[in-house]
Write a structure and sequence with these properties.
The chain is α/β, with parallel strands linked by helices and 462 residues long. The chain has 14 helices and 16 strands. It has 2 domains: 228 residues, Aldehyde Dehydrogenase, Chain A, domain 1, CATH 3.40.605.10; 187 residues, Aldehyde Dehydrogenase, Chain A, domain 2, CATH 3.40.309. The radius of gyration is 26 Å and the shape is globular.
Length: 462
Amino acid sequence: MHRIFSVQKTDFFQSPSPSLQQRKQHLNTLKILLDEYKEAISAAINADFTARSAAETELAEIVPCVQSINHTLKNLNQWMKPSRRKVGLHFWPAGARVLYQPLGVIGIIVPFNYPLGLSIAPLMTALATGNRVMIKISELTPRTASVITEMLRKGFAETHVAVITGDVEIASAFSRLPFDHLLFTGSTTIGKHVMRAAAENLTPVTLELGGKSPAIIANDIPLQDIVERLCFAKSLNGGQTCIAPDYVLLPRNKIATFIQLYKAAFQKMYPTINANPDYTSVINAHTHKRLQEWLKDATEKGAKIEKTSDEIISDGSYRMPLHLVTEVTDDMQIMQFELFGPILPLVPYDNIDAAIAYVNQRPRPLALYLFSNDRALQDQVMNCSHSGTVCINDAMLQFGVDDLPFGGVGSSGMGQYHGHEGFLTMSKAKAVMYKGRINSMALIYPPYGRTLQKWLFKWLSR
């Protein structure tokens, strides 16, 4: 790992500014590789999860990566152009601009839930910005890591792109490398360790951490219009998505109707759970056990649980039907931790101000969802709450909009990538000033106190 970092650093110094044509070639190579390896990747992710919907792998990982590459190819020329800036009259004759330079070697730490998408999306941005890249893939997805390693070796030299595999100790050592930028996607707890390690080298970080993303259902919107959207977003990847709705705030008198409609929507999408190729499993036995323990804790503390299916899972996977939980309280574990699984607490409110206050009293989430057709309420929620992203009248779609930045705030992370903001994150915006032959600054040189100088100082201070 240290050897690879050293050779990538050396390679960067030898060619620190790839041309637009070179960068586009790298992106096109990545796109070709994704098409060539998509079936092998899908099979590997399915094996790592014990059951991962092939359609979800294509929909949530392969397609977004290809679309992001296309968007970047279309806009890269414009992003790379120096930005002209204004120079005050007192500096004339002079000019100023900002150059966007590659940083060097970028480190990317990938979680288990979207091992392809969360490898390739930041890799694509790093290649577009002209950097070298090292990727650490989660030890929970070893088969996927093996396929991605093979794929990237086929298209890129180790001095340009390299994949690192291994356990927690390897990941810890990876985060301590003196990268020029480090991007981590994962839990808030691990994110703190990553940031602490990066601080030893003053390595700038982008942290995508998640948290408990709320969905607020306003009183004005018919439940039947939006319940399928929530159900799809929460069920995708077995609920293991950092921007999945983590809990729902809704009017107290609508809870019973919501449960009825939600169960009907779930059963329409997933008539069966056992051996259903459309429904993704929880990643492993440890996570499955933790989720069951959280449900038990909630039940013991007075919560009521409505399962969307009573099937017995006997297919060898860790599939779980979605559990709707009511009568929740803050002392329950399901309300203290990001759920990252098929559990959805329902929190009643009596007025919308109370719902907004409930969100604001908690750590700032990576995403917030509002279901309402009331424009005034939409503005109120957007202006009176903080979250990394917002989606109105749907859920999770904002992640797929290539021209929107993606990133957290507070406990849900820092920094952002995707689109132009991603290009800026992984570039150094270098300020450059140009002076002409005439030295206008001689007017302010000592000795001080000259009449013209006094007038000039007074004019500049007006």
